[in-house]
Inverse folding.
């Protein structure tokens, strides 16, 4: 293997005046090299295979111009560096400098070329540094996810008083989030077997799936008022989650999200059990979770302020039981649960995480040190002769 080092000649003010580089056969570490022109007696150590030096006075000088060179580095000997490089036999351009150490600059005792004799300008020789690979870190690209969000509301009468407020709060949060970052969000508002005028919920789930998504009506699991009571059909939340997860016209590659707004148990509303929900509600939630998970659909749940009993203790018991199922559906589908209108403040933060672009990992490129000549002849960092 070979090892390269770079060094600099500094002007009196500390700015870079010239640059040099050399390469020898062997690994980095302890080394003792003495090079005399033509390999004359007195040369020792690893073979010097390349040497280049450039400044605006001498131009570019190479190994064939190197009269003498000494480089020692290691714990067993004093580290030192000195060079004597001239365009022999003319000797009109050249530099003699040394002896530099890691702690002390060497002196440029002879310096001649363009502009004549410029030896007494206070220029100094730095001790060489290992020419290491160049690492470039490029910022990751912004990836804007395609996100489909279906906002679904229980269209029963108990949600009427909240529908208008929720329509505004959810819509405002969505618009606010879209202003914060690049996004590719499509939002659809649907009601279960019903709609609410003067809100964004003006299309039913059934109409959207059969008319817009062109789904065969026989495939829809949500029930109609002819199959159950009118309110019960509007409270088939779990079945609706199944239907939207399976049949909605999701865009290819879209991140799928359902945001359900309701206040009743998930299978046809309140049951006559003391807890307000029964085993059918739990099993319906299980099926909804399974289908949503299989289709890669994240379900967020909002529980409104329903009235379950005139008895305060029973009301609270029923509310907690229903809330537990709402939270379970959200948790088990990697969604988020919101317990009241106040907690919708967190909806905007959640939505921002979902729709905002994320950056890919930075791209790190490492380029091994290549060429001494190219290094010393790079423009833009050496001075004009004074």
């Amino acid at each position: 293997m070979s090892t390269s080092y770079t060094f600099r000649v500094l002007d009196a003010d500390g700015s870079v005046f010239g640059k040099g580089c050399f390469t020898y056969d062997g690994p980095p570490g302890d080394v003792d090299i003495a090079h005399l022109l033509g390999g004359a007696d007195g040369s020792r150590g690893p073979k010097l295979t390349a040497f280049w030096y450039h400044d605006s006075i001498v131009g570019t000088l190479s190994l064939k111009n190197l009269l003498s060179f000494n480089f020692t580095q290691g714990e067993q000997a004093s580290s030192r560096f000195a060079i004597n490089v001239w365009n022999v036999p003319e000797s009109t351009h050249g530099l003699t400098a040394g002896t530099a150490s890691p702690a002390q600059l060497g002196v440029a005792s002879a310096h001649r070329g363009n502009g004549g004799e410029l030896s007494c300008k206070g220029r100094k020789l730095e001790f060489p540094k290992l020419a290491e690979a160049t690492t470039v870190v490029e910022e990751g690209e912004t990836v804007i996810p395609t996100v489909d969000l279906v906002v679904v509301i229980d269209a029963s009468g108990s949600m009427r008083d909240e529908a208008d407020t929720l329509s505004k709060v959810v819509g405002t949060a969505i618009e606010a989030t879209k202003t914060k970052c690049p996004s590719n969000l499509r939002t659809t508002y649907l009601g279960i077997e019903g709609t609410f005028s003067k809100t964004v919920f003006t299309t039913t789930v059934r109409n959207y799936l059969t008319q817009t998504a062109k789904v065969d009506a026989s495939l829809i699991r949500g029930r109609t008022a002819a199959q159950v009571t009118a309110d019960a059909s509007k409270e088939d939340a779990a079945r609706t989650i199944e239907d939207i997860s399976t049949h909605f016209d999701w865009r290819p590659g879209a991140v799928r999200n359902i945001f359900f707004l309701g206040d009743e148990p998930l299978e046809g509303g309140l049951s006559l059990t003391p807890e307000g929900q029964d085993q059918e509600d739990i099993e319906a939630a299980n099926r909804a979770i399974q289908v949503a998970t299989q289709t890669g659909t994240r379900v967020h749940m909002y529980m409104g302020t329903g009235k379950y009993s005139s008895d305060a203790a029973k009301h609270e018991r029923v509310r907690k039981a229903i809330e537990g199922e709402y939270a379970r559906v959200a948790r088990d589908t990697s969604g988020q649960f919101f317990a009241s209108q106040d907690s919708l403040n967190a909806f905007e933060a959640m939505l921002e995480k979902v729709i905002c672009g994320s950056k890919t990992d930075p791209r790190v490129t490492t380029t091994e040190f290549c060429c001494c000549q190219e290094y010393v002849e790079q423009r833009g960092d050496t001075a004009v002769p004074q």
